[in-house]
Amino acid sequence: MTVKSKKDVIVVGIGNVLMSDEGIGVHIARRLTETKERYPQVDFLDAGAAGLSLLHLIANRKKAIIIDCTKMGEEPGTMRRFGLDDIKSIKTLSGLSLHEADISRIVTLAKFLGQLPKEVVFFGIEPESLDPGQNLSKTLSDKIDSYITEICKELS
Amino acid sequence: MHKNVNIDVHHITRVEGHGNIVVNVTNGKIEKLQWQVPEAPRFFEAMVRGRSYEDIQTIVSRICGICSITHSLAATKAVENALGLQVTEQADKLRILMHYSEQIQSHTLHVGYLAAPDFLGAPSVVPLVARAGDVVKTVVRVHRIANEWSDLLAGRTTHPVTLRPGGLTRIPSEKQLKELQKTLKSAIPDLKAIADVVLSVAGNIPNFERDTEYVSLKQADPPTYTFYHGGITSNDHKGKPLPIDKWHEVTNEYVTEQSTAKWAKWHRDAYAVGALARFNNNAELLSPMGKNAAKMFGLKSGCCNPYMNTVAQLVECFHVVERSIELIDELLKKGLKDEKVTSTVKAGRGSGCVEAPRGILFHEYEFDKKGNCVAADICIPTNQNHANIQKDFEKLLPEILDQSESDIRLKLEMLVRSYDPCISCSTHYLDVQFVK
Question: How does strand B373-379 pair with strand B359-367?
């Protein structure tokens, strides 16, 4: 099967756009896709609630930038850049279902399988609301341009 | 026998609860035994109200990252039924091929990532890499093929974009279909390798049975092991399968005290949906490779061991790959044609049904004369399985009460995992502490 040609760098936005700020990664990925002409070596992807498929999206790349809603104990709207070794996951999973996703553990699995890009960068954004709804909170919505400016620095 | 057992697999997040398993046994007496679940996707129904019939499948595709194609297909079929739209034979076959890709995506994940650690005695798939790296890599390889397969037909790996009421907005080329067919043929040895591993540890599948009702789609014309067309049947149902628009007569949703999610019952106090239900109602229609896989595991129609759902999924993997190879031949034989998607608007109400990897899924919508949604109703397979899980618990626990608390807990968790409930897929956020 013809696999779509993969570029060296991928920017992946994760999240559920039906759960307000949970979808921030997807909102940012969609906005970044508009800049793709400026970054010919970069694939931009709204991965939505893809979960374990992230493994395949980042495989065989030199660099992966993952943008996701992240509870860090910061002020809502705060964005932090970090690597896998900078954090430990404290997400509670029941272990009963494939439907639970902890992106950091999926990236760890990629590492154990030897399929991790040389560089993996996370941009985590502290949510204000995780309630059902298709709009971002005003706090995050007002900051989306600044998030994009910051993430684009990673691409230059 | 243990005099006291206390198990509380309990998770509460800020957004929604997960499934909880609660067991309290005092002096050998079972005082509390509950499978507790929160309501999951009902609020999505409110989100589609007021939206155009053209947008529904896109919105509902975001309900779930594992079953996004399935939700989109159920919604698209419901919209088409409401508006009286027909699709061509070519679009129908391409949709089935798309749907098959999601069955393989989900089943391989379930067998490889969720069930294999149980069978191989690992706490999760990550430590399993060190112990059985080749197995995990084989599963990852098949899952990757399924993802690329979805990408080709649905336009994306997750959350399809090619589905529209009335047809498909984009079709693959004949060359791409031939390449897909070649890839599927090359995946068969990997599937066999996975089946061999599961067979080698099949002795770890708990030997537990509980007779229950199994509900699934059934298609008579032409006779097909169906995931997409047909009516609703069960091992208790007499006569022809029920038409899809009668689905409320099947689900009979009701409220219980222990769960905010509604439960379902048809002829008995609970029923099961999923791969084992499909197998039990359609086993004679499996492809030759699917039948061989079933034989290999001794899986026969009428099986009422819920842990065997995982084996039924594996059997379906063989069937789906073999049937997809044939389906591509049928499409290529006729030649692919570019088809325009057209639709006309009218007021109406319609239901759509497909088999999600974890069981039968119903969507229903009503539209006004402008084609805007005025009512929506979705019944996911997980909700239909909740009562059955509780009934399984009630038969299982007394049978294993002499085992250690950790073994009891493991068997209850494995039981839930065999159903792979969709209990928390609407959020994917990270929750971290900084260590540097």
Answer: antiparallel
Structure tokens at B302: 């009428």
The values of phi and psi at residue B186, to 5°, are -75, -15
In a domain, B95, yes or no: yes
Provide the ipTM. Answer: 0.91
Structural domain total, chain B: 2
- Gap between the Cα atoms of B16 and B426, Å rounded: 9
In terms of DSSP bridges, do strands B430-434 and A63-71 run parallel, antiparallel, or are they unpaired? parallel
Q: Which of B136, B147, B416 sits opposite A113 (nearest CB)?
A: B136
The pLDDT assigned to B13 comes to: 35
Q: Where are the beta strands (DSSP E) in B75-225?
A: 163-164, 167-168, 213-220, 223-224
Min Cα–Cα distance to chain A from B238, Å? 34
Per-residue pLDDT in tens (0 to 9) along chain A, 156 residues = 444 678 999 999 999 999 899 999 999 999 999 999 999 999 999 999 888 889 999 998 999 999 999 999 999 999 999 999 999 888 777 677 777 778 888 899 999 999 999 999 999 999 999 888 999 999 999 999 999 999 999 997
Measure B44 CA to nearest chain A CA, in Å: 8
Task: Pick the range with the lowest mean pLDDT from A91-105, B191-205, B318-332, B384-398.
Answer: A91-105
Verify that B78 and B15 share a domain, yes or no: no
Residue B425 lies in a domain: no
Statement to judge: residues B176 and B271 lie in one domain:
yes
- Examine the domain organization and report whether B143 and B179 are in the same domain: yes
Query: Which chain A residue has the Cα nearest residue B136?
Result: A113
Question: Which of A22, A69, A94 is most worth mutating to test chain B (most B CB atoms within 10 A of its CB)?
Answer: A94
User: Is the CB of B424 less than 8 angstroms away from the CB of A16?
Assistant: no
The answer on B413 and B355 residing in a single domain is no
User: What is the predicted pLDDT for the residue at A4?
Assistant: 61
First-last CA distance in chain B: 48
CATH topology of domain A9-88+98-153: Rossmann fold (3.40.50)
Domain ranges for chain A = 9-88+98-153
Average per-residue pLDDT for chain B: 91
Same domain, B303 and B278: yes
Distance CA B173, CA B187 (A): 21
Domain housing B414: 5-39+388-419
In a domain, B392, yes or no: yes
Indicate the pTM of the whole model.
0.94
Tell whether B209 and B291 lie within a shared domain: yes
